[in-house]
């Protein structure tokens, strides 16, 4: 897992005030599908370092943000742009499907 972690303490600076789009991966250590999608997100980040930032947010350690952003199932990924949620992706998907979902941010 190479994606940087964000927390309730750093979320505003890391995500809401960030330049460019930020994908936040809402996950938990006990979540099997979360562990499956993590390396795919790492690959997307590595291949597009100047287009999108990928951050991880542990929902067990940051329940306030999970509640604020209405995370009811994980993995859930939200792309923030300009401090607002631009798109939401629910569930583990293969790389090509995630890249399709993120196409507008990976141009």
UniProtKB/TrEMBL annotation:
Q: Which residues does the UniProt site feature Contributes to redox potential value point to? A: 32-33
Q: Which domain of life is it from?
A: Bacteria
Q: Does the keyword Iron apply?
A: no
Kindly name one Pfam family recorded for this protein. Thioredoxin
Thioredoxin domain location, by residue? 1-107
Q: Name one GO biological process term.
A: cell redox homeostasis
Q: Which CDD domains match?
A: TRX_family
Q: Which residues form the active site?
A: 31 (nucleophile), 34 (nucleophile)
Keyword terms of this UniProt record? Disulfide bond, Electron transport, Redox-active center, Transport
List cystine links.
31-34
Which segment of the chain is annotated as a signal peptide? none
Report the GO terms under cellular component.
cytosol
Q: Which SUPFAM superfamilies match?
A: Thioredoxin-like
An MF annotation (GO) of this entry:
protein-disulfide reductase activity
Q: Where is this site: Deprotonates C-terminal active site Cys?
A: 25
Membrane-spanning regions, if any? none
Kinase among the record's keywords? Answer: no
Family membership: Belongs to the thioredoxin family.
Q: Would you tell me the protein name for this molecule?
A: Thioredoxin
Species: Microbacterium paludicola
């Amino acid at each position: 897992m190479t994606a940087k972690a964000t927390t309730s303490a750093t979320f505003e600076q890391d995500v809401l005030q960030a330049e460019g789009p930020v994908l936040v991966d809402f996950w938990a250590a006990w979540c099997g599908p979360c562990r499956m999608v993590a390396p795919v997100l790492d690959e997307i980040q590595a291949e597009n370092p100047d287009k999108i930032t990928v951050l991880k947010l542990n929902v067990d350690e940051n329940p306030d943000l999970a509640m604020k952003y209405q995370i009811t199932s994980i993995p859930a990924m939200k792309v923030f742009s300009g401090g607002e949620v631009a798109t939401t992706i629910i569930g583990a998907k293969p790389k090509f499907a995630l890249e399709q979902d993120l196409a507008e941010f990976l141009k």
